[in-house]
Design goal:
By secondary structure, the protein is α/β, with parallel strands linked by helices. It has helices at residues 8-29, 42-47, 61-68, 101-111, 128-131, 135-149, 166-182, 201-213, 231-250, 254-258, 278-290, 331-338, and strands at 50-51, 72-79, 89-90, 94-95, 115-121, 153-157, 187-193, 219-223, 261-266, 268-269, 275-276, 295-299, 367-368, 373-376, 379-383, 387-388, 401-406. Residues 4-34 and 350-355 have low confidence and may be disordered.
Length: 407
């Protein structure tokens, strides 16, 4: 996402040692965020949207809670140090061991009756599963995060390039299993890439790794964006296909698979130029609730506000959605999934296209020459020169398509 066995005596000793070390350090700092909160019900951890607390112009979490009724956030991302090593950091640069900034954010959220989960991994940076060497060492690093912030939930965001590394995924899944055993009641989600088929080869291999280790999290979530998706129907189709993969991998019924399945979307304009509006979120939410799915989240709260101009000149931002919206429109769908009623505001409708797509839809097999116009992903595009098979809206090698705006 832009701009996801220790022997019994040794496990207990390692966990206790890490917990004591973390709590001692925190006591020395005297930070209120380490006071163990009352855990929220699991539906709130299942609905927690991603928030970068140190990057992408983070909004005030308390203001988001007041505006939406949201109670939980998914703080991103825990990584290995950029210079290497097996100690947890925020974003590869801010050590968890000496952190006070994120702890302050957590304290403010908990003071208003909310809580947080932490997400490990993500798209960029070096992951602890790549540097820690073993599941035990990886788990010990993550235990420092759990102990430091008294976490009741943890998300494993396993995606490119880490999930292409067999040893790293073995370490991450093994660590998740150890943490689940050493922290009774912890809510663990596993998030991975989505494709039209549900998930790709590496996502399926990750599921097989979990099966081989006998590990079952609270849910497996896919991210159906940045993969040629176009609106809610393509996303619900991917969720249906992913359900089939879960059934065949674990021998579950469709209902059991849905009870272990989650959705992690991207609000507004995706990295690859796809658009997901409020109406798309409502459609996927209806699908998730009607099928008894286990999780509904999105990337990210930092982006849950309107750009200036609203369409951001056809670009994707880490700090706004690039679609017309009121502040925190998309966060309210997480609140609905959790079963709460968001505060009443005047809804912002999905924008009406400024012009009609009066040209033919782009196809990968057609040949286009300079000046030819096509429609694709609700935009009109003009070819700069001869092309075949290069999808409008993707960077490609030559950048043959000129975006002429929404339609």
């Amino acid at each position: 996402m832009q701009l996801r066995k220790l022997k019994p005596l040794a496990a207990a000793a390692a966990a206790a040692s890490l917990a004591v070390a973390a709590l001692t350090a925190v006591a020395t700092a005297g930070h209120a965020a380490t006071v163990s909160p009352a855990a929220l019900s699991s539906n709130w951890y299942a609905a927690a949207p991603y928030l970068m607390p140190l990057d992408n112009n983070p909004p005030d979490a308390g203001a988001v809670m007041d505006a939406t009724g949201l109670k939980a956030f998914q703080l991103a991302f825990i990584l290995a140090p950029s210079g290497g090593g097996c100690s947890p950091t925020w974003g590869g640069t801010a050590p968890v061991s000496s952190d006070t900034a994120v702890a302050s954010t957590i304290a403010a959220i908990r003071a208003k009756g909310g809580d947080v989960s932490a997400s490990v991994g993500g798209y960029g940076g070096t992951k602890l599963g790549q540097t820690c060497g073993t599941p035990e060492a990886t788990a010990a690093a993550y235990q420092q995060v759990i102990s430091k912030y008294s976490l009741k939930a943890l998300d494993f965001d396993l995606e490119e390039p880490e999930y292409e590394n067999t040893a790293a995924i073995h370490n991450e899944i093994g660590a998740a299993k150890i943490l689940q055993a050493n922290n009774p009641g912890i809510y663990i989600s596993v998030t991975t890439a989505g494709t039209a088929a549900g998930t790709g080869w590496f996502g399926t291999q990750m599921l097989n790794e979990a099966k081989s280790q006998g590990f079952t999290p609270n849910n497996y979530s896919i991210m159906p964006f940045d993969g040629g998706f176009s609106g809610a129907s393509s996303q619900t189709s991917a969720l249906t296909n992913f359900n089939t993969i879960l059934q065949s991998t674990f021998g579950w019924s469709a209902a059991t698979a849905y009870a272990h399945e989650g959705f992690s979307g991207m609000n507004g304009r995706s990295d690859s130029g796809e658009y997901f509006y409020q109406a798309d979120f409502q459609t996927v939410l209806d699908y998730a609730t009607s099928h008894g799915m286990a999780r509904f989240t999105f990337w990210s709260v930092n982006r849950d506000r309107q750009c200036t101009p609203a369409d951001n000149n056809g670009t994707t931002s880490g700090t706004c959605s690039s679609v017309t919206q009121s502040a925190y429109d998309f966060s309210k769908y997480s609140v609905k999934f959790a079963g709460a009623t968001p505060p009443t505001t005047t809804p912002t409708p999905t924008p009406t296209p400024t012009s009609a797509c009066t040209v033919a839809e782009w196809t990968s097999t057609a040949i286009y020459t300079a000046g030819n116009e096509v429609a694709h992903n609700s935009h009109k595009w003009k070819a700069k020169w001869w092309t075949q098979g290069e999808e409008p809206g993707t960077t490609g090698v030559w950048g043959v398509w000129q975006d002429e705006g929404t339609c």
